[in-house]
Design brief:
Phosphoglycerate kinase; six-stranded parallel beta sheet; 37% helix; 15 strands; nucleotide-binding; alpha/beta; Rossmann fold; single chain; 2 domains; Phosphoglycerate_kinase_N; Phosphoglycerate_kinase_CS
Length: 399
């Protein structure tokens, strides 16, 4: 892979130059207060931004947040992010109240060397996500006008063919930021020749969301451990009663075929925590998977499953984990995810947490992030990379 890096750009000198940085600042916000509940993605881009600031660049940061419909929407403003980013950088971040309008133009024009500006949410402009190449290109032209060079450090967005990710690099000298470079280096270890045994843990709610990655991984992994809501479709494929648990009926036959083809590589839960309702205070018990009552639903894997999965993980030399084992946001159903995460940290293995809910779980459960080999910032992007797909943002950097 031939991609120019941030170090290449810094070696050329960026003092006084405007550098447009595509970051992934799509952080979760509290619905009531608007406060940031997890600043992990902001912290992830600090090495790139800090290096540019230190080198005297005029740094223009752009990002999306949430899924606004191509028009300004106050609940998705990056205003709170600008404040937190300034705290972490130790210097004010100048915030433009639009993306490519009057505020953006004046904010960028007023930047001094070593200062940072943040543009308002890219998705407030329909051109960012447009399928129409002319509309997307016109928006990319406006964005590119704010930079003399472009840095992509938004790994969580590289699987999107969006203006700021795919079209802007064609208009400016472009490099990969430190985060993107690290993500690609780590994930290429998993797709190349991983040290064995190679064990993958997949959770989350739907088999359909993970089918492509399961298909891609089955030939290469030594064990595939499946938990979360998606496990119930596999259990149904074994002819078991799953009560009112999450079930994708149209995927049952697919799961049956995967089990038959897996050669025994797939491990499923042997016990689960079932509850009367999807609620934090619902009455709940642990039952064997062949004894799930018809009126109850599974919300976590049980302690025997954690023990069995942990035993498999203890033998591993390479581990990839994507998706929680249960509804970890509710304390009554967090033990499975915590148990598996702790087992991963204890294994003598190179471990990768595949972004998304798994990364959120690590932080929400108060686990030591440094005890994992790498925590990805891109759930969807990391899965698509492992599937072997071409990621538009990476392809744009290679050109």
């Amino acid at each position: 892979m031939s991609i120019r890096t941030l170090d290449d750009l810094l070696a050329e000198g960026v003092s006084g130059r405007r550098v447009l940085v595509r970051a992934d600042l799509n952080v979760p916000l509290d619905k009531q207060t608007g406060a940031i509940t997890d600043d992990g993605r902001i912290r992830a881009v600090l090495p790139t931004l800090g290096a540019l600031v230190e080198a005297g660049a005029k740094v223009v940061v752009c990002s999306h947040l949430g899924r606004p419909k191509g028009a300004p929407d106050p609940q998705f403003s990056l205003g709170p992010v600008a404040g937190r980013l300034g705290e972490l950088l130790g210097a004010p971040v100048h915030f433009a109240t639009d993306t490519v309008g009057d505020s953006a133009r004046s904010t960028v024009a007023d930047l001094a060397d070593g200062q940072v500006a943040l543009l308002e949410n890219l998705r407030f402009n329909a051109g960012e996500t447009s399928k129409d190449e002319a509309e997307r290109g016109a928006f990319a032209d406006q964005l590119a006008a704010f930079g003399d060079a472009y840095v992509d450090d938004a790994f969580g967005a590289v699987h999107r063919k969006h203006a700021s990710v795919f079209d802007v690099p064609a208009r400016l000298p472009h490099v990969a930021g430190r985060l993107v470079l690290r993500e690609v280096e780590v994930l290429s270890k998993l797709t190349g020749d991983p040290e064995r045994p190679y064990v993958v843990v997949l959770g989350g709610s739907k088999v359909s969301d993970k089918l492509a990655v399961i298909e891609a991984l089955l030939p290469t992994v030594d064990r595939l451990l499946i938990g979360g809501g998606m496990c119930f479709t596999f259990l149904k494929a074994q002819g078991l009663e799953v009560g009112t648990s999450l079930l994708e009926k149209d995927m049952v036959e697919t799961c049956r075929n995967l089990l038959e083809r897996s050669g025994g590589k797939i491990m499923l839960p042997v016990d689960v925590v079932v509850a009367d309702a999807f609620a934090p205070d619902a009455a709940h018990d642990t039952v064997r998977v062949d004894g799930i009552p018809s009126h109850r639903l599974g919300l976590d894997v049980g302690p025997e499953t954690v023990a069995g999965f942990s035993a498999a993980l203890s033998q591993a030399k390479t581990i990839f984990w994507n998706g929680p084992m249960g509804v970890f946001e509710m304390p009554a159903f967090a033990a499975g995810t915590r148990g598996i995460a702790e087992a991963i940290t204890k294994a003598d293995a190179f471990s990768v947490v595949g972004g998304g809910d798994s990364a959120a779980a690590v932080r929400a459960l108060g686990l030591d992030e440094s005890s994992f080999g790498h925590i990805s910032t891109g759930g969807g992007a990391s899965l698509e990379y492992l599937e072997g797909k071409t990621l538009p943002g990476i392809a744009a950097l290679e050109n």
